[in-house]
Amino acid sequence: MLPDLRLYQLTSPSLPVGGFTYSQGLEWAIERGWVTSIESLGDWLESVLNHSLVTLELPLLSRLHTAFGQQNWMQVDDYCQWLLCCRETRELRQEERQRGAALATLLPSLGIEILPELAESVRSTQLAGFALAAVRWDIAPRDALLGFCWSWLEAGVMAGVKLVPLGQTAGQQLLLRLSERVPAALEQALCIDDDHIGSSTLALAIASSRHETQYTRLFRS
């Protein structure tokens, strides 16, 4: 029971790592008219789920969980570098590093020691800190992946609700619908081999690169 509660804390929007300040290009996509409704928001998020979460973040999170559990610090660093190399824009790389640094600052105050040899890796990506906390708090790998995916989905829907804008009820309906896709996505992610880890989200990359110079914006990315 306690690992479940720790997972809820780790994925909570109240966790002070600034998750609510990022839209991952969605703000520009809405400004440009690519996303204008609850339907198009759902299409956008499902595409990112299928072509990034399933093929990049979740497989690497699974591997990081294993590497931390085995105390294989070289693999931890390799996976962090792999993730950063797959971030296609300056803004997305900055987001990854900023989230990582915020989580690395927070974890010691929650009783999770970060060894000196791990400090650079943990600060470089959010996934590393998330995986480290999951291992230290005895959160099972599948549960950690499921929680991370839900946290991403909730943040994306809430950003869309704010930006389009959409009603809160519509946002909850979309969460209900897209969450039905998550269990299958998790199973797919666990079957991805090393040679196929990567993302293919061209629209997100374009939107993120254009968002870097968007004149008026609410989100950092």
Automatic annotation (TrEMBL):
Q: Name one Pfam family in it.
A: UreF
**Keyword Cytoplasm appears in the UniProt entry:** yes
Subcellular compartments: Cytoplasm
The record's principal subcellular location, in a coarse class, is cytoplasm
List the keywords (alphabetical).
Chaperone, Cytoplasm, Nickel insertion
**What GO molecular-function term can you cite, just one?**
nickel cation binding
- The domain of life is Bacteria
Cellular compartments per GO CC: cytoplasm
Extent of the signal sequence: none
**Entry keyword Cytoplasm:** yes
Q: How does it assemble?
A: UreD, UreF and UreG form a complex that acts as a GTP-hydrolysis-dependent molecular chaperone, activating the urease apoprotein by helping to assemble the nickel containing metallocenter of UreC. The UreE protein probably delivers the nickel.
Q: What does this protein do?
A: Required for maturation of urease via the functional incorporation of the urease nickel metallocenter.
Give the similarity note: Belongs to the UreF family.
Instruction: Give the protein's recorded name.
Output: Urease accessory protein UreF
Q: Which organism is it from?
A: Marinobacterium aestuarii
Gene assigned in the entry: ureF
